[in-house]
Amino acid sequence: NRKPIVIASDGRLDETAPPSIGVVLVDPEDGAREAVVGYVPDVLVRKWSVKEQYIALVEQSAIALGIDTFKHRLRNRDVIWFEDNAVVLSGMVKGRCHCPEVDDAMAALHLAFAMLRTRVWYEYVESDANWSDGPSRELSANEWLVQEGFSVHTTDAPAWPWLVSPEDRVTVLAGMLGA
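Structure (tokenized):
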């Protein structure tokens, strides 16, 4: 009977700056407005940049950042999560993806949600309507976040979905999530 949390996430990958991400959360139960923004760490950029295009991995890292940052809010809650990247959206809905790196991380993200007992409904949103589009590009300097009363945290994307071996995932996530 609880109201779902609303989250929007986005990633930016272009030649103007290092890959960056933003996640925006609204909790209608207590009115909380929180955002987290940051960069994709160099270890992941080096790992992914062997590909011609890796925007899906950048976008996916925003979901991992949302889990890491908002785990205290996500536990035992329903979430409506807005995403503007079709590959990530499709993969999170289906639970798998044709790209091995995205697919492997999908398993880790789904496991994290299961350990938190979080049910997520993913919804597509156009980039221009995505609350997190500006924050993913401008980070904490985004005026919309200030105007709308969001508290903003800055940190880098976590690397665990891509660097922790499948054999160690349960142990690592249990420690990280306090499960």
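The helical segments are 42-48, 55-74, 86-94, 100-116, 133-138, 143-147, 160-163, 169-177. The mean pLDDT is 93.
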